[in-house]
Amino acid sequence: MKMKQFMALAATLTMAFSLTACGSSNKSAEEPAASGNETENAAKTTDNNEQTSPGELKPEDGASLVVWESKEERAFTDEIAKQFTAKYNIPVKVEEVSPTDQVTKLSQDGPSGLAADVVIFPHDNLGRAVEAGLLLANDTYKDETVKNNTEASIQGVTYDGTLYGYPRAAETYALYYNKSLVKEAPKSFDDVIAFGKTFTDKAKKKYALMWETGNMYFNYPFIATTGGYIYGKNGTDKDDIGINSAGALESMQTYVKLKEILPIKSGDINPDIKRSLFNSGDVAMDINGPWELGGYKKALGDNLGIAPIPTIGGKPAISFSGIKAWYVNSFTKYPNASQLFAEFASNKDAQLLLNEKVGSIPTNKEALEADQIKNDPYISAFAEQTKNSQPMPSIPEMGNVWSPVNAALPEIWDNNADPKAAFDKAAQQIKDLNNGATK
C-alpha cells in the first residue's frame, strides 16, 4: 500500500490540469496521469468502519472537516454545515473555491494534507480526479445513493464502473420565452421557425430565438436527439466517436434550418449580447441555463416563461446535463466523517434546502416530487428537461472534443459548410488527439 500511495503522490504532484466549465465557456481537459490508490483508499474507508446505525459510519474521534464550496452556493453550505455539526458534533469549516478549480487545487494540496476533506465539482472533471488517485469511492452509501437519485446523476458520478460522487444537483438548459411576445411555448423547432418568419427582423435587431450557435454545450440537442452521441457506451468508449453518425447529421438538419430566423454570425452571439436583447424584448426566446433565471425574472417578471427545449424530428430534445456532486478527498485524515458529511449534505432535505437557497435542480427522486419543486413553474421546467438530458462524458478524453466541435459549428453556421464534412473533420481531430497527436 505504501508503494501505491507513493505512486499516487508522485503522479498527482506532477499533473497539470485544464478544467471544464459548464455553461457559456466549456474548455478542454489535459491527458491524465495514470495512477491510483484504490487499495489505500479501501483501507482508509474500512479502518474505522464502526457503525453508529445500519448504513451510517461512526466518525473518527476528534474529527473536524474542511469543505470547499463556490461563492454562489456558500449560503447553502454554511447552513448545512451548521445542521451537520449540531447532529454529529463535528466542526466544519467552509472555504470558497470555484468548483471548476477544485480538482487542480486538490491535486496540488491533497498529498500535503492542505486540501479540503470534502469537495464539489462538475462531473466532467471526475475522470481526471480518479485517474490521479484523488478520491475515495462512495461505497458505504452506494446502495442508497443509487436508489435515491436519478439514473442520469448516478451515471454522471460513476467512473469506470465505480461510484465516487454524492449527487446534489443537476444542471441543464431549457427554453426561456417572453410571454408578451410568445403566447405559448413552441412544441417543436418547426413551430419556432414558423414564429420566427413573422418576428425576426435583422435590420431592427429583433430575433425570434437566440442561443450560442458555436458552443457544443448548447448545441448537443442538434447532435443527440435523433441518435448522435459524443462517445459510445454512455460516454465511456473513446474509440467510438458519434458526432458524425447518421443520427447526428439528421438532427443537424434542424440546426441548419434555424439560420433562416437567426441570420447573424456565431461570433456575434455571446451571453452578454443575448442577455441584453432578451431582457429588452428584442429576442423572444433564449436557450439557456438556470444561472440566468434570477436576472430574467427581474427583467421580465410575470412575462417570463420556461419550457423544455422544442422537439427535433418529432423526438424530445436531448440536452447535455452536468451533475454537481460532493466527493471525498482520498488524502483526508477523517474518511468516515467526510463520507458522513457528503451523504448528509446530499440527501433529500439537503437538496430541497439547496433549491431554496440558490434555485438548483435536485437529483433526489423524492425531492423532485416535492411540492416545492413541482409547484415552481421555472424549476419544474428545468427538471422536466433533465429527464431528457444526458450527462457529459466524464472520461479524460472529453477534453479533446470541445475545440474540434466548437470549430466545426461556426463553419456550418457562418460559412455554410456541409455538416458531414465539417463533423468528419472534427471526428478525425478528436481521434488524433485521443491517440496522442499534438497537432
From TrEMBL:
Q: Which residues form the signal peptide?
A: 1-23
Please tell me one Gene Ontology term that the record gives under cellular component: ATP-binding cassette (ABC) transporter complex, substrate-binding subunit-containing
Ranges where the record places region Disordered = 25-62
Q: Which GO terms describe its biological process?
A: maltodextrin transmembrane transport; maltose transport
Q: Which family does it belong to?
A: Belongs to the bacterial solute-binding protein 1 family.
- UniProt-listed PANTHER family: MALTOSE-BINDING PERIPLASMIC PROTEIN, MALTOSE_MALTODEXTRIN-BINDING PERIPLASMIC PROTEIN
> Protein name, please?
Cyclodextrin-binding protein
